[in-house]
Design goal:
Number of strands of chain A: 10
Largest interface: A-B, 46 and 46 residues
Strand order of the largest sheet of chain A: 2-1-4-5
Order of helices and strands of chain A: EHEEHEHEHEHEHEHEHE
Strand content of chain A: 15-25%
Distance between the termini of chain A: 27 Å
CATH class of the largest domain in chain A: Alpha Beta
Largest sheet of chain A: 4 strands, parallel
Structural class of chain A: alpha/beta
Oligomer: homohexamer
């Protein structure tokens, strides 16, 4: 039976995460499913959006463990709810930001993040500090395209990403690029080719594939997060939210 | 007209934050009010609890600014929703954890936090890293009493707090103590006296008074958080939550 | 009876700290007084000047505690004698550099200091390291105007400060500005307006008001520095200086 | 065709790395092979041993890329020759120390390494600094058993490992354990069970399986190390070593 | 002509620094002289004492450069006035704390300081942060003997130093010892022998000889401090101190 | 009898290290000798080259201690084999990179390294991290001249070094320069003069003289590296290398 990994896209907008994306990740021994959340924001471009996605994400995460899914991946570079979800789950749940930044730190001296908007910068900076890779972060650059307009003009998006990536390599000392929004899924190949054409070839990390494959590796290695870092919360009243019961 | 500061207690349990606490903070030129949240957890003892308190807290925070309150204080040492709230507010909103840790860093070389339960430790560690005071944190110690049992036996609580504080000073190198739960409001005096009696006198920071007074100082200095670090979120659909409109 | 805070201006030049400055800080419950020192430099623009201001400052500080003043503020961004003074005092004494940098770290991700001369840069860098906010310091910029010429042409000064502040926000990643010389008292409003006019609005921290108000908040919260970090010095012979006796 | 990963055991002693170890890692889509080196030390327990293993390891690594192997794993927690090998290879080569430490940093707040001898401690400390996880390293503990005696008494080894792991969790603040010698392959399960029995359950990372599975994930994600961090060395005379030619 | 290095002992107590100490440092090509200061404290055991030693030290330092001395060494582990003196000098002036800590960082992974009194601990901690060796400092330990009683019972002093040094190596992870008071001159040999007898042999750095010899090496290498880090102070009025004129 | 220090040039190319260089370092009480290695690379411009120089260097280092040499200096800024050599030696062995970076950290706030080629940058960055001076490193700049072409056109070399040094001071915030290749021996004077001519005067550290003189100072102070940081390796089989026996 193949491993089953579920991607939780912590927004309420349909059609942003395409079926093509998911299918490309599957293989004989890896099943990938995906779900949106019921309550939350249309997209995540701020701490405010991220915070409002967490209750919906927690519901989906608890359900997935109950269904027998092997691991979860949060489909947002803000890694919203990652720590809260680990407290209520036994199976691994990975954030693409944490995972991609550690992979980048293994493959290169310093890396840059290319993301959507200036408003996301403080959130990504804080994550780099918590994850302990702050010294390896060469820069954060933005293409200035909102999440929900990513699909509107892929040519413009790819050109903007390649331009910022090239600037990061040439001027900021980046030896690797991490795509700073999971909505950029699929753009890594074009960016890598553009960088190579300019003599600036470096690894370009597409967070969703990298994180799904890392989640699978962790499951196969029998590993999950530490319950001493992420202890199960004590039982108590919760008003206004109806979350599925989780294992205590 | 006196300055008006509102304390938002981000839980749904009535009677935990007492009227006495609030009155003791008031003076001729400082009015202090307090509110609970409508939806959220009974108490906060994990990242999970903290995350579920944020939607309710954001609603109360936006309302308060609309009412003309001058500054806000979050009544929880996890500082839940601090960054999200700053994005939607113009008036200062302070977290007692951020504020107390910076005050401790100003008054002493290293400080210890004494909090309720082991499950809170990772949350406080992460905050110390984000706030940049990690190197100043001598230790985090716990009294192993849940938040909702704090009021049940104040003698036992005070003894446990004084014991852990004394251990922190004697063995961990703490030169100041920060009370690690806002439910400990009012215990600082007893702890300080106990420490003095053991020849271990150090400042004991009670987060709610310290944070309310710092908030008042910021308002009087004409200061609030930076909108470049906390940019106003873009307008978008939000499903399942009905928050008041905020200024954009 | 109002709280009484004294500003010690650690130089011997009369007329630099004006009566207007002090009056603007006072209120019904806050009395502010000010004093120069007897022996020391005309102004402080180097470690050398700072070191020579300390004996005079210590004398004034001990006297103030004996008089019953509630807290002290050092009127120089080099925070000269801060640690030495805390060793001989029970009441709080605050440095504007330490206080302003911690406030900036609370209000913004990164901040820049705008100071008088290049010669002050190493001193401020060292302070940022000791205070633990080095990673939050985006840059130090100078207006290249000596301390004693600050008052000569306020228009030129304001223009230079606003220009450097704008450069810090636009190019160095500063999300807040800290005025890097207490002689810039009163300039924050103009700089903030200029930044707003250029679409670069960030908090501008004027160190003296911010520090005086923080000192008042600490006194009201019953807090002072730790005597374990700042232990009272042992009694011994002191040749060439006649300092008032301090409490041991 | 399955992915092919080769483990290079950088010592000259036959029989230390067993066939069982390798077979347990294989699956339908993952082939694992293994090789010793021709010149070098009997085992690696110091920087001296590690340095003398590098020429032999580089030869094996270049050969493997020429053979069409997809990725390489160094079979020693000193990660000897990792940086040198990346300079002469296009395919990924992973060190178990770098990989395991980053995995531990993703799964837990802090982790401890349990290794063979005191003499290995400085080497592992330096690696933690270079890899950027120094702050996450709770402690390094040793079982005081030389590498070549690991197989002599597995019962004693397992007991010693479990004891040190339990001490690390109970006293050093470790929330995860990384086995600090690849010779400990296979011991993780016993240690995890012992920790669970003592109420100290945390993830126990067995470096070789974790690194082989991560290497496979990187290959599947199309990622390898950055040639800007690991540039191809210029051609030049090399006396006393006959290495295979590598791609320039 | 031999190199001439002068030791400035920044206290007013005669007889503490003995002639024997100085003579032992001299050789055919190295002349060592020594001087006390005119105004200042009897000994240095706090930031307060240190601050009051600086004006006297600056006078002696400027005089020495005028006399043609080649380099200066401050005879106190608080390195009082080091930065101020560098601003007014062209010749090298070294602090034994800065020099010894860097030497220790070159010879060992981590080191401990053994000093006189608890009151000195915060001063030495701050220096370790400014000098950038904080992560290399395993611990600071004290013998609890005031500076002016060091000479009273050398047997007791040596025993206490050896005991604390052994504890630092055995329990704090120190791989080298730095004597934390220049009054301990001459004790290194005894401590090293005691450590060796206990199987805890590590380098024991005696700050004055190490710093005098490093100063000589810098002069021979034609090196001195950077005038960009230590710029010459601008000319201005100085009241209450009569310092010799320095080169501008 | 004069002190005897030997420089080990860890390459096989004759004529790169000239007799003039060595003679200039000698004095009545300091004898300096020099040797190449037997097996290894023609020059060192990568981690790969550095790794292949170590076996040859270890042989020469052990021989030198047996001959009675007092201290050793590695003639390459990659400090190849430094840690391995310290494990097998009792006498001090110094790397010019470690030594020069610590000297620079003592003389200036921040420093820049000027080296040969881009390929050396990651190696020097890693060393700065291990040595603990990363925060003091303003930048690494290159002249883009391979090691073996250094002697071909000294005018071009000096001009390129002076240009990069001036840029480092003017734009990167460097307050000192460290020559980043020991092949630049003798260029410091020209660079210093050029910097002075441009009003950018800072210390320029020539690593070989600075390291030889520091090694002599350590020997005279009776200091060597800690055998707890660099423990003697256990005896074991070594295949393919014939190293002289070292003291255990």
């Amino acid at each position: 039976m193949p491993l089953h990994i579920r991607i939780i896209t912590p927004i309420v907008t349909e059609g942003v995460r395409t079926l093509d994306d998911i299918e490309s990740l599957q293989s004989d021994d890896l099943r990938v499913s995906q779900t949106l959340i019921d309550i939350g924001p249309a997209s995540i471009e701020s701490e405010f959006d991220g915070a409002l996605s967490v209750p919906g994400l927690l519901a989906r995460a608890i359900e997935a463990e109950q269904e027998g899914v092997d691991a979860l991946v949060i489909d947002c570079m803000g890694d919203p709810g990652l720590k809260a979800a680990r407290e209520v789950l036994s199976i691994p749940i990975l954030g693409p930001s944490e995972t991609s930044m550690h992979i980048a730190a293994m493959l290169a001296g310093r890396f840059s993040l290319i993301t959507v908007l200036e408003s996301v910068r403080p959130m990504l900076s804080d994550l780099a500090k918590i994850y302990g890779v702050w010294e390896r972060l060469a820069s954060i650059r933005v293409v200035d395209i909102p999440v929900l307009e990513i699909g509107a003009d892929l040519g413009r998006l790819n050109a903007a990403l390649a331009h910022q990536a090239a600037e990061a390599v040439a001027h900021d000392g980046a030896d690797a690029i991490v795509l700073g929004c999971t909505g950029f899924f699929g753009c890594a190949e074009f960016i890598a080719a553009e960088l190579a054409a300019r003599g600036l070839s470096v690894p370009v990390i597409d967070p969703i594939p990298a994180t799904v494959l890392t989640a699978a590796a962790l499951v196969r290695a029998g590993l999950t997060h530490s319950k001493r870092t992420y202890p199960t919360p004590p039982q108590k009243q919760l008003k206004g939210f109806s979350l599925p019961e989780f294992r205590r």
